[in-house]
Design goal:
The structure is a homodimer of 198-residue chains. The first copy, chain A, is α/β, with parallel strands linked by helices. In chain A, 41% of the residues lie in helices and 13% in strands.
Chain lengths: 198, 198
């Protein structure tokens, strides 16, 4: 053991965070030692509170500190459109654009045979229940643009299309500000495919 | 506010760690959400314990979870040599070498007029008290090899030399494995200065 026990334990805890190696964990642990007593107590309390007070929204599955999240309980939002995303990080990303006014549905993952995740582990049943209320007109599938996201999008689309609901997918194309020279072939092909008249 | 309040609070707490920006803090906060309840409780407890149970050793100032640190209370160590360092991280660095068998003295910083730190803010009085016991023969000054570390080394050396104590400084030179082409002039000059017969 390199450090005194309580410090070593803290270092090991920091190591469990995504992307934190040992040297970084040591730096963080020393940061904690340099904090005021009060700040450290607040830090510990923030960790406990995040685990204790954050629950998935009963309707959409987004992170929430009450029964239904701030988006689902906002009456000004368009209840006829649901944007289907993999996780609540995607909700935050789309909310930042301040353009979309519909609701969300968080799947909690994507279909991934490699990781042993099938449709029944995702919140797809809950999505069908929401569609069942008859309020929904359009489903925007915004899973990530990779094979698993695509598979999930196709799966949901096949389930939902017979219910007479419009299913759309985020547009593929070259990202704004990018250089065509460095765009991969698949992206360029999709951008050509999806070309629009100006 | 981008995230639900308890999450936002946790993100801000992570931002107070040294070298953590907002995006990294978000990643860490989501890592905490992904933890088991038990792991999160242990993490919070590790933070509180580090602040509560770690105190400076009464003798050398190194981090300790009891009155005197494991090095000071180790009777097999040579009590006639004290290695003077800036902080307890330096103690760990030197201990890793497993070569040095003397004691340490942690100054808690270096003399730095720019940051308004004078000798009276460092644990120099405590060092003189330890020397006063008559047990100490040699002081190895291992402050960092920069202007402030050098100034502090000179200051201590001037105080201690009249007490008939040998004062030494870590050797300067080219680091093992380095390329001479890229060594800075000051380091090369010091390496020439300190050359030894082979």
């Amino acid at each position: 053991m390199e450090y005194v026990l309580p410090l070593q334990r803290l270092i090991e805890k920091f190591c469990t965070l995504r992307g934190v190696g040992y040297k970084t964990a040591v730096r963080y642990a020393f940061s904690v030692l340099d904090m005021d007593e009060q700040d450290a107590v607040e830090f510990a309390e923030a960790i406990l509170s995040a685990k204790r007070d954050i629950h998935p929204c009963k309707i959409c599955g987004n992170l929430s500190d009450s029964d239904s999240c701030s988006i689902c309980s906002d009456n000004s939002r368009d209840r006829s459109v649901i944007c289907v995303v993999e996780d609540s990080r995607a909700v935050t990303a789309i909310e930042k654009v301040k353009e979309y006014k519909g609701l969300y549905h968080v799947l909690n993952g994507v279909i991934s045979p490699v990781n042993n995740i099938g449709p029944e582990q995702l919140r797809i049943k809950e999505l069908l229940d929401r569609i069942g209320t008859g309020e929904v007109r359009e489903l925007i599938i915004a899973t990530n643009p990779n094979i698993e996201g695509e598979t999930t999008a196709m799966y949901i689309s096949k389930l939902v299309t017979p219910l007479n609901i419009k299913v759309t997918r985020l547009a593929y194309g070259v990202p704004v500000g990018a250089d065509l020279e460095y765009a991969d072939e698949m992206t360029l092909m999709r951008a050509l495919d999806g070309r629009r008249q100006i």
